[in-house]
Amino acid sequence: MKRLLNTLYITSTDRYLSLDGENVVVLSGKEEIGRVPLHNLEGIVTFGYTGASPALMGACAQRNISLIFLSGSGKFLARVSGGVRGNVTLRKEQYRLSEDKEESIQIARNFITGKVFNCRWILERATRDYPLRLDVEKLKQKSTFMAESLTKIRKCDDAGSLLGLEGEAASIYFSVFDDMILQQKDAFCFQGRNKRPPLDNVNAMLSFTYTLLAGMCASALETVGLDPYVGFFHTDRPGRISLALDLMEELRGVMADRFVLTMINKRILDGSCFFQKENGAVVMTDEARKTFLSHWQNKKKEVIKHPFINEKVEWGVVPHVQAMLLARYIRGDLDEYPPFLWK
Questions:
Q1: Are strands 15-20 and 23-28 parallel, antiparallel or unpaired?
Q2: Predicted confidence band at 109 (pLDDT cuts at 50, 70, 90)?
């Protein structure tokens, strides 16, 4: 149970929520493990299928407190809403900003700033942690290039130019991704990013993890009332969760890429966990996918200190914090959207 920015997060999947007077009560079985006054809350987000009492649902609807149900893996399930919701105003402003090129580029620029900053620090941390096993000078050169890219990104005021800068920085980052694979090089050799379909074991893991992360970001945006299909960096396309892909950019490296490297370097998966389909696509076996998802769930429970709100949060809650910050910026409560900057 964690309260962030006036939103209560219930991350354990076996908790039941009920109402006692003016308080939301969190139960584990019949044991009360916490309670929070309703007047302190703007929203409640619960992971899992245990549920909430009808009395609490009614109280939240009456007080205009959003009550969001997510699956244990973080997939959006449902939202309890009252007669009047502020989401309409928020989404109308989101749509207005998305149609304004100058406004859109400001938000998109911060998403990409977060992405390049975090990827750069993945390289920096690798040189710090494994100085005897890596070509430190090579990685430092790539890091310097990305630092220079950040300066250009912060000044960029054109969508096409921003896309070019992002692509260039991503190419530089992935050019040394194979260097950070320190174990099982025979089974996990990375020669570049490929997708639709992934053609090797590393890309199969990256694509799968990106899919999981995109789903988390889409759920987080739904939770705060934003439309995950209307983005600022990724253009609108039927069926594409453009804003979720925007939000995911700054989290790709720190949540997905580092997780894949851990799975390889700690030998949690090996070459026998993959097979190639007739069309050349490489996929994980069912057993490997179960192992992968189990470790992914554990990764989401690890606690870090969020660099902007300066509070301890689980990795799995980070997309929700970023979605809340984005909603606050769109409402006008923040002067600028603060990307997640990891070190």
A1: antiparallel
A2: very high
Nearest partner of 172 among 221, 220, 211, 115, judged by Cα: 115
Beta-strand runs (E) in the chain:
2-4, 7-10, 15-20, 23-28, 31-37, 43-47, 66-70, 76-80, 274-276, 282-284, 303-305, 312-314
Give CA–CA dist 68/77, Å, rounded: 8
Predicted confidence (pLDDT) per residue in 291-337, tens digit: 998 899 899 989 999 999 999 999 999 999 999 999 999 999 999 99
The long-range contacts involving 321-325, CB below 8 angstroms and separated by at least 24 positions, are 321/4, 321/5, 322/220, 322/247, 322/250, 322/251, 323/217, 323/220, 323/221, 323/223, 323/224, 323/226, 323/247, 324/4, 324/5, 324/7, 324/224
> Which of these, 232, 245, 223, lies nearest to 95 by C-alpha position?
232
Neighbours of 266 (CB within 10 A): 11
For the record, the structure tokens of 117 come out as: 């900053």
Any idea which of 26-40, 66-80, 181-195 has the lowest mean pLDDT?
66-80
Q: DSSP for 202-230?
A: HHHHHHHHHHHHHHHHHHHHHHHT--TT-
The Cα 20–Cα 55 span in angstroms is 9
Query: What is the token pair recorded at 133?
Result: 């096993």
Segment 237-281, tens digit of pLDDT: 888 899 999 999 999 999 999 999 999 999 999 999 999 988 888
The model's confidence at residue 4, banded by pLDDT at 50, 70 and 90, is: low
